[in-house]
Amino acid sequence: MLWARLRSSRFPLVALASLLVLLIAGVAIAALSERSLKVQTAREAGAQADLLASAVSGALAFDDREAAQDYVDAVQINPSVLAAAVYDEEHRLVARFTRDGETVPNTVTPRERMTVFENGRLYVVRPVDQAGQRLGAVHLRLMETPAAQRFSRYAGLLLVLGLAALVVVVLAVAQGALRRANRQLAERAADLVRTNSLLQQQMIEREKAEEALRQSQKMEAIGRLTGGIAHDFNNLLMVASSGIELLDRTDDPKRRRTLSAGIKQAVERGAALTRQLLAFARRSPLRAEVLDLRSHIEGLRFLLERSLREDVEVVLELPDDLWRIEADRGELELALLNLAVNARDAMPHGGRLSVSACNLPGEDGEPDRVCLRIADTGVGMPESVATRVFEPFFTTKEVGRGTGLGLSQVYGFVRSSGGDVSVDSREGEGTTFTLCLPRTEKPPTGTEAVTSVAAPGPRKRKFSGRLLLVEDDDAVAAGVGHMLGDLGYSHVRVANAAEALATLDKDPRFDLVFSDMVMPGEMDGLALAQEVRRRMPGTPVLLTTGFSEAASAATGEAFRLLPKPYGIASLSDALAATLQEPAA
Amino acid sequence: MTLGRGSILVLVALLWSVPPHALASPPQRQSLEYSVKANYLVRFAAFVEWPQRSFATNQSPVVICVVGRDPFRGGLERAARAQTAYGRPLAVRHPGTAEAAAGCHILYVGQGGGRLVPDGARPILLVTDAAVSAERGVIHFVISDERVRFHIDLQTASRSGLSINSRLLNLALSVRGG
After folding, report:
1. Tens digits of residue pLDDT in A25-42
2. Which domains, and CATH codes, for chain B?
3. What CATH architecture is A290-438?
4. Which of residues 92-111 of A touch B (CB under 8 A)?
5. CA distance A61 to chain B (A)
6. Which superfamily does A460-580 belong to?
7. Minimum Cα–Cα distance from B87: chain A residue
8. Cβ <8 Å between A62 and B40
9. How buried is A178 (Cβ within 10 angstroms: 0-12 exposed, 13-18 middle, 19+ buried)?
10. What is the ipTM for the molecules in this complex?
11. Which residues of chain B have a CB within 8 Å of the CB of A59?
12. Residue A147 CB neighbour total at 10 angstroms
């Protein structure tokens, strides 16, 4: 029980053991010392008794009591002696000396030499002999070393023991305090671990919540996007459907031309819209061309002015010595149009849109760049908006007015062209977008066609050739079939890859295989193309798709690709280019 | 220890404890006196050392002689019986001639014993008694304060080749030539 209490009191066992050892050592030393002291006392008393015995021998032999008394009295100089007595041969008292309270018997029983400790007294008996004659005996009674003297003897030892015990206790207390501190530390560490795990749990929960929030934001964005796209598409569809109806009702060639041009324009806008979506997703392969910004933007002036209102002045500052850049022409146009439209919306009461460009020589090993600045004098925007303008689906316009994809397209275009875009805006002071694109040393390519949409009739040529058209959608197949026939090609249409291979087995005399990429069946367009290339290396393949992922797969396999939707002009160009290509 | 000697000591003790005037008749007192003297003669053997040449062997006895009239009436023999001195036994003799007395170690001169004392410096402890004559030997018994005491002639003792224990000297009434 004591043990348990000691353990629970956390008194260090080592300290306890030390104290115990100290105690035992102290007791042992004291006992040894006491014993040696006794021995010494006994020896001293014996010597004194011997001395007395030898001195009183004559007095005893010749019955001289006075002399005997003198010798006995001499003994009292020693303060330890309580009583001394001399007995003769017949054991009768001859002389004695006693201190207060001590008595001496008149006769004693005969004894030999004796030294005995008893009740704190030391009794010493020595016979008196002279030359062999027994003359009597001497009795001495001494007290043991007085307590005070003994205490003083042990005082030093006690002091040392006390100090040692004190040190041990102090150490024990210190150790106890240390242990307590350690325990507290451990508890705190455990608390910390608990708090940490709690924190991590909260982080996980927070991540989940953020994920959920992102999801809901995405849903909201998709909703907004769908709204915007549906609005735009509805408009386009409205134009197209009304145009087609009117086309059926009139035979006036001029009016029909106007109507078909309107329909075509609506379709082109729809195509531009889907391209914008794909560019945002950055899944549309960029068709990089070497461009001269100066002539290109000059060519766009008309378009820009048409997109803006009359109260917006367009100022172009383009130096003659601008470096060339390499970028997708359509994307660049789209980016400029998006920026222009935003600028227009930012200037509801009119203003000035300035498009300027300058060469920016690279520093510290960075490449040279050409920077395009599009600045308006509009309302500007707060910083909280400015930091978010490049986020997809972020818009300040009301639902249906904008998709929130304009600036996101700008960002995606510039980044995928290896450049940077930044915005500098202050509320009430207008906004400046800066697009920096890397310089290229390549020579300019091809003819500078300002617009890709307007490929007018005069370029219309007649082709000849036999095509295998693989298309699962009947309507699309019919439309494409009309276009092919119009261009002068003859074709055989099959609905999937398996049919195509069967047809090719039976009748391999085709000049080209024109296939959709995404089709039902075990084999898709890409696999078909690979199979055709394997079986008939001399037959070129042209792939088409509306899916951007499939498109990148096709370009990865080095097949020519015509993205959907396409017009008769681009179809004609693509077919001509594919037929001209040397067989892979 | 013998009964006889014990009784003598009892008497001696009685002598000490009883006042002198209350002592019994002179003959009884005289008898006590001589038994004390006989006892002393025996004790002297333990307090005196003789030269080695005075003994024939290591076991030779210390010879106590009485010349002249013997006043001890057998008390000396009783006192000496079973006693030793320096490991030697004690013997009591009564030599009839001075030649015979020459072998003694302690020689008590009784009434009319003066002519039997051997001549010259011999290692003999000559004990005389004031009750017998005024002539003094090495030790001379006297009665002082009703007690048997003695004088010591250390000079003569030294001349005789005897050495006397200082504790004996301390008890002498006087020491001559000390």
Report:
1. 888 988 888 888 888 888
2. 3-176 (3.40.50)
3. 2-Layer Sandwich (3.30)
4. 92
5. 6
6. Response regulator (3.40.50.2300)
7. A132
8. yes
9. exposed
10. 0.79
11. 167, 171
12. 9
